[in-house]
Amino acid sequence: MAFVCSERCWSWTEDLGQFAQDYVVLEPDLEQAWSNSAAQPEHRRQFTKVLEQYQQHLQAYLDHPTGMTLPDTLQTSSHLVSLAVRLDHDIRDASGHIWYHSGTILDPLQVIHYHRKLCFFNQDSSVQRQWLVNTCADPVHAIWVMEQGAFRTWAEQQTRHVYFDQYGYLAHRFSIRHLPAVVYQDGRRMRVDEVLP
């Protein structure tokens, strides 16, 4: 057993014994194997090719990440979403004291007031981009959340923060079925308005 510490620290180890027979490891040293492999031109070419493919894949993902494909809003609609959760286990502090018992319902909107609105849109739609600029212009009270589109290119052109809803997590959480949509607090729930652009 080993313990590494960069500052002054106190530690101990305990010999737990031997549970099975030990065998000599017949593998070459990993560092030496990498050095030998890297020294061979064919391996260097293969590694460089794999690295370039990975970089291209990463750049493509950054340019157009995986979002949620949602249709355009054809008819305005509105619904409420609760952020309350029922605990399925006790929440304890470091000393074991129970702060919240299993079955307790916690609602963050009882404690805080969320004064901003989330504006969900599809960047691939020029109509929705225009709606976004007209409706959610205030950078203090409106947060832009992109569901689809060329994220990196478009975000770099903006003078404000733009967020991307990876894999549609927020759209799913707020039960958004059409874009564009605006989410804001309404009492102790969040109101989701799917609007015409």
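^ that was protein a. below is b, sequence first then the tokens
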Amino acid sequence: MSESPSVANEAETGQRGAADLAATARWLEDKYGYVSNLAQTMAHAPGALMPWLDMEHYCRFESDLTERQRMLIVLIASRDVHYCWPHYRPLAGTVGFSEDQIGLIRLGRVPQDIAEVEQAVCQIANEIVAGRRVPQTMFEEIVKLLPPRQIVDIAILASFYLAMGVLSTGLCVEVEAPEILRKEQVHHKKSIGLA
């Protein structure tokens, strides 16, 4: 990901002004087609914003997981987060999850009508999001279904989206207007080849 002009300027001056925040917002709008309230908030810490965006890009598009597996993890990590749920819940339908499956995930349950490997993904993500160690017996079953890279990617995604929830909740980030959420959904669909 290329560095935004505002980040380079901040590094040179050591101060962040309204003009730099506006430049960052323009850069985000040009890159993604929208600017989330969380990104606007994080723009106050430009040295953190760019690595954060890089990590989110890895989680959403480069991890060694299927789009459905990624979405399961994101839903699990964001199920109780006022800011995150409205962003990710609508995207779940784009990868084929039913309303019943989404409802079960929101309740912290594992849908039994999804693939066995997806159920394993849910089990790992549920343990990580709850701050628990994956039980040894569960881990022994999971390694039969998933290679180490995918298991690590599950942990990375669960941790990242859990951190996003904590950050957005702690900073009282408000959910965007519906038109911004629609732009995000369009961007996501294009990014995964569905639009």
